């Protein structure tokens, strides 16, 4: 049975993930063979964005169109989610107009309210707590390169309290991947999310470790992953964060500590010279732009999984 929503990683099962990945492979193959595949024909998808985006908006709009559907973008000013109109009202109205809702919100609570009152699938394009579409695309990319996700160790370097780190911790636990987080103590992952991930890891055999030094996490890693030090909405903290995170950078020295064939990943946008050097993102181990492309492919798999 298909899930109604994908708004976080916590309630996604490994079986769900493999179904999405198989759908993704099938959709890619159909497009490569020029097969007419339009499962969303006659369906519209609302895109509610409280914050701007390049990859999330473009990949969803293009993907929905490629599947035969109609994307309808609603800017922050147009929808005024929770300000101009209550979130329950927006959810119920859009459920009568469209076949699914993609939302990009500041607060995860807003995402939960939207999903509670919507009667069509709700997909998170990001909230302050989770970024599930990003992490599903990341795991898919790793799987394609490594041939497996079991016993693969991912080292995340940077802010352990942001939505990408939280989603990676849970996503790796679900899939039986090992994850090492290197982050300053004051930026450790949310304890509740970490505990849920550890509970999942007990069943899947995943190893979750939190370190204070990047070199500790990177040692023997198969994947080195980072994100910006300052996320959207934290701009006033930017200067302080640069000081705190100055040593939490993926660079050639850190790459040498990891496994020889380690993959370099970044969810973008990248601040070159801060969380990652130009040499690292442009180097032979980098799969950053393939990772970005796979957002398009995996999100199409998610749309078909939930809507068809």
UniProtKB/TrEMBL annotation:
InterPro entries cross-referenced by the UniProt entry: Asp/Orn_carbamoyltranf_P-bd, Asp/Orn_carbamoylTrfase, Asp/Orn_carbamoylTrfase_sf, Asp_carbamoyltransf_Asp/Orn-bd, Orn/put_carbamltrans, OTCase_ArgI
SUPFAM superfamilies with a match to the protein in the record: Aspartate/ornithine carbamoyltransferase (SSF53671)
Residues the record lists as binding L-ornithine: 163, 227, 231-232
Subcellular location: Cytoplasm
Gene3D superfamilies: Aspartate/ornithine carbamoyltransferase
One GO BP annotation of this record: citrulline biosynthetic process
EC number: 2.1.3.3
Keywords: Cytoplasm, Transferase
One GO location term (cellular component): cytoplasm
Residue span, Aspartate/ornithine carbamoyltransferase carbamoyl-P binding domain: 4-143
A molecular-function term among this protein's GO annotations: amino acid binding
Reaction(s) catalysed by this chain's protein: carbamoyl phosphate + L-ornithine = L-citrulline + phosphate + H(+)
Main location group: cytoplasm
Top-level taxon: Bacteria
Pathway: Amino-acid biosynthesis; L-arginine biosynthesis; L-arginine from L-ornithine and carbamoyl phosphate: step 1/3
Ranges where the Aspartate/ornithine carbamoyltransferase Asp/Orn-binding domain occurs: 151-306
Classification via PANTHER family: ORNITHINE CARBAMOYLTRANSFERASE, MITOCHONDRIAL (PTHR45753), ORNITHINE TRANSCARBAMYLASE, MITOCHONDRIAL (PTHR45753:SF3)
Family: Belongs to the aspartate/ornithine carbamoyltransferase superfamily. OTCase family.
NCBIfam families found in the cross-reference section: orni_carb_tr, PRK00779.1
Name of this protein: Ornithine carbamoyltransferase
């Amino acid at each position: 049975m298909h899930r109604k929503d994908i708004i976080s990683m916590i309630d996604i099962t490994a079986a769900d993930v493999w179904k999405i990945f198989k759908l993704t492979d099938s959709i890619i193959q159909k497009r490569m063979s020029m097969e007419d595949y339009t499962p969303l024909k006659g369906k519209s998808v609302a895109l509610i964005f409280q914050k701007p985006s390049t990859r999330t908006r473009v990949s969803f709009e293009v993907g929905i169109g490629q599947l035969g559907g109609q994307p309808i973008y609603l800017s922050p000013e147009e929808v005024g989610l929770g300000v101009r109109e209550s979130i329950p009202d927006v959810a119920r109205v859009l459920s009568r107009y469209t076949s699914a809702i993609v939302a990009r919100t500041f607060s995860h609570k807003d995402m939960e309210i939207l999903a509670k009152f919507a009667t069509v699938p709700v997909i998170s394009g990001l909230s302050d707590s989770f970024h599930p579409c990003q992490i599903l695309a990341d795991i898919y990319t790793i799987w394609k390169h490594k041939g497996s996700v079991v016993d693969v160790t991912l080292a995340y370097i940077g802010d352990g309290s942001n939505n990408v780190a939280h989603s990676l911790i849970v996503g790796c636990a679900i899939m039986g991947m090992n994850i090492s987080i290197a982050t300053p103590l004051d930026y450790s992952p949310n304890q509740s999310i970490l505990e849920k991930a550890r509970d999942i890891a007990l069943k899947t055999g995943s190893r979750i470790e939190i370190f204070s030094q990047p070199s500790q996490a990177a040692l023997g890693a198969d994947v080195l992953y980072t994100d910006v030090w300052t996320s959207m909405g934290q701009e006033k903290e930017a200067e302080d964060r640069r000081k705190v995170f100055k040593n939490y950078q993926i660079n050639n020295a850190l790459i040498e500590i990891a496994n020889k064939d380690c993959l370099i990943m970044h969810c973008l946008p990248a601040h070159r010279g801060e969380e990652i050097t130009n040499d690292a993102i442009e180097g032979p181990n980098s799969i950053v732009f393939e990772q970005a492309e796979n957002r398009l492919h995996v999100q199409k798999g998610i749309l078909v999984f939930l809507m068809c």
